[in-house]
Amino acid sequence: METTSPWVALAREIGPKLAERAATHDADGSFVADAYRVFAGRRLFSMAIPKELGGGGASFAETCDTLRELAKFDASPALALSMHTHLVAATVWKHRHGKPGEALLRKVADGEIALVSTGASDWIDSNGTMKRVEGGYRVTARKIFGSGSPAAAMMLTSARCDGEVLHFAVPMSAQGVSIASDWDACGMRGTGSHTIALDDVFVPESAISVRRSAGKWDPSWSVVLTVAPPIYMAPYVGIAERAAELAFASARQNADVAHVPLLAGEVEVELAATRTAWRAMVASANEYDFAPALETANAQLVQKTLCARAAIATVEKAMQLAGGRGYFRPFGLERLLRDVHAAPYHALPEKRQHEFSGRIALGRDPITNQPS
What we know:
Layout lengths: L5 H15 L1 H7 L4 H9 L18 H12 L3 H22 L5 H10 L3 E3 L1 H4 L6 E5 L2 E11 L7 E8 L2 E8 L5 E3 L14 E11 L3 E6 L6 H32 L7 H27 L8 H29 L10 H8 L9 H12 L11
Parallel strand pairs: 1-4
Antiparallel strand pairs: 2-3, 3-7, 4-5, 5-8, 6-7
Helix pairs in contact: 1-4, 4-5, 4-8, 5-8, 8-9, 8-10, 8-11, 9-10, 10-11, 10-12
């Protein structure tokens, strides 16, 4: 008999409350602050943190399934939560493999605080400048797509310094940190994915977590790209599943119309493809039991592209299956269609993934055309 994870059950319990304001947040582009308060109250920000560190002890697979389930009610808070959660997951991997990370995990669990990342938009090269000063650095940068930034307590980001890229954490309350409030997008409008500005922000030496050469592949990315894609793609799987549910319910009354079963079958195939690619990513993370490997990171990025393609196709086919009714905003499919089209913009966008994977296939370095 199949049992439901208590975290998935929690998502189903709080989901209707998220759904109540989903259309409002979508209409005015306001941040889903109400959902974040619910997440904090039900300790979803720390669900993936081991129990011995004060967290909820959710498995990697449970964490992904919870995000998928939340997205069926409102995709914006699910995606914003996933952006926080993939940072937590990467830190859980570090902790489990004897690397520094316990302090950050305890801080999140103790205060049920939210994190914000700009790592994907920075990618290998990063942006911004860091100048050495006594006791640390002064950072000036503009970091885009800071999902959840209006309610985040800490940002994990990076900047360039003397030919290196330095990764660090900085409190959102630090002097010189500000939010541009410029998120006005086609879909995922409630995520609060604003640009975050750092103007001469002091970062102590103790806050530096990773140092790597600028413009070169670093093994730390193999950890991030193994755990992050299945987490941030989980909401898009939930979107595809919800779109299919709505379309099937609408189409059953017209099941005898010649083309309707054909369209229903197309939705089923695309949804199966979405789930298959996503489940492969979840399995590759292997509950954090993996050694960083370029091959695994590359496979995750390939599956991410396949999952994004299939999720978009699922919702587009669902719109066709629902017919004219699906075009009306109150029905719910129109918002799902806009939201799912954010999937390709996550690391790596499709053409950048093609280039990355193509270089590896040809025996080259993933970032340059030099032999590997």
